[in-house]
Design brief:
31% helix, 386 residues, Rossmann fold, 2 domains, single chain, alpha/beta, 5-stranded parallel sheet
């Protein structure tokens, strides 16, 4: 029989939702370097905290990581809670989940956001189960305020206006429940063909893992960085609490494409099907000229033309590059959701009614195998003239 894990607060009760307050963000760092996802979530958490009228706190876990607290404040945190301990130097599920659950059981935030990184996807379910609360995984949109949520639905769903206007309650245990203060966590379901909004009405904190890249990072504010309150939590942790020991950290030899951090992305879709190898080669040539990377639609990944780390869209990565070039991509709702906020979108497609043209800044109706070489030469000439 497994031993029941004890929390630092023996009187913790997740059903007493009136005792929970403030929005928290798990600020992930690796070897002393903050993950960009953490700053994205702090920026989004700032909006949610303002809607709720509460504080925004960053939760920083590691060994000798206190110096990172100021940067978290610069993106909007009112307070940073630092959990510092030598046994937290390298991530292990048992150590991190114990410490995080201990501090949550004592300080009781009403919402807790975690980046849907490899670490976040491991940590989130463990903490939710231990804290006896709900978790919505892989979220792409978050709201609290009902009018703001309704505006989101008007632009992102096919629900009739009357249905949206009438939203105010949800059936919980057979009774009407006021959802005005619940965190509304939206995520793709059924392979991205459906969007579902989840609430956690009976327990706190409401927990969500959020996909990297879907939330916009706010501008850094030096004054807020200097003003942030730093609180050091008294970590209770020893070797007996750990089931796993990290002996060595070895970086993977395989290099994955960095879509989220790229300023220029050239993506391919179904349009390259008549010559897949040639289409991907053209995409790489154009990306090289621009100093960018190659991405792909879901069709390109499902067909095996590109690996999964290249996928852009609702079931892939959400990107915000300076320039996004879509070659032979029709522009499904799922794909547009992952790239529509690019600063400049260039679309090449033979079908003049392709939905991608609805959001493109520049649209070229033509054969990508003829148009792309011309784009490559034009960009080369433009760079040479500088």
């Amino acid at each position: 029989m497994r031993n029941e894990v004890k929390l630092a607060n023996p009187n913790y009760d997740s059903s007493k939702i009136e005792e929970f307050k403030n929005v928290w963000v798990f600020c992930e760092q690796r070897q002393g370097q903050m993950m960009s996802t953490s700053y994205e979530l702090i920026s989004e958490g700032r909006k949610l905290a303002d809607e709720l009228g509460v504080k925004l706190c960053g939760l920083l876990v590691g060994d000798n990581v206190g110096d990172l607290a100021e940067s978290i404040g610069g993106y909007g945190a009112d307070e940073v809670i630092v959990c510092d301990h030598p046994l937290l130097k390298n991530y292990t599920t048992d150590a991190y989940s114990k410490v995080i659950c201990d501090v949550i059981s004592e300080m009781k935030p009403e919402a807790f956001l975690i980046g849907a990184t490899n670490i976040g996807r491991d940590l989130g379910p463990r903490c939710a189960a231990r804290l006896h609360t709900g978790l919505c995984a892989d979220c792409t949109h978050l709201d609290v305020d009902m009018p703001i949520y309704k505006d989101f639905l008007r632009g992102a769903s096919t629900l009739p206006e009357a249905k949206i206007d009438g939203m105010a309650t949800a059936k919980v245990m057979g009774k009407d429940h006021d959802v005005s203060r619940d965190l509304k966590m939206t995520r793709p379901a059924f392979g991205g063909n459906l969007m579902a909004t989840i609430i956690c009405p009976r327990f706190r904190p409401s927990m969500a893992t959020v996909r990297p890249g879907v939330m916009k990072k706010a501008a850094y504010d030096e004054a807020k960085a200097k003003a942030v309150k730093v609180t050091k939590y008294d970590v209770k942790l020893d070797a007996a609490d750990l089931q796993t020991e990290v002996v060595e950290v070895v970086k993977a030899a395989k290099k994955l494409v960095d879509l989220i951090g790229a300023d220029y992305i050239v993506s391919v879709g179904r349009g390259i099907s008549k010559d897949v190898e040639g289409g991907i080669k053209l995409a790489h040539e154009l990306a090289d000229v621009l100093g960018g990377v190659v991405g792909g639609s879901r069709v390109a990944i499902d067909s095996g033309w590109l690996t999964a780390d290249h996928q852009v869209g609702q079931t892939g990565k959400t990107v915000h590059p300076k320039v996004y070039v879509a070659l032979g991509i029709s522009g499904s709702i799922q794909h547009k959701a992952g790239m529509s906020e690019s600063e400049c979108i260039i679309a090449v497609n033979k079908n003049e009614t392709a939905p991608i043209f609805e959001i493109a800044d520049y649209g070229i109706c033509g054969d990508l195998f003829k148009v792309t070489p011309m784009l490559i030469e034009a960009f080369k000439a433009a760079k040479a003239s500088k």
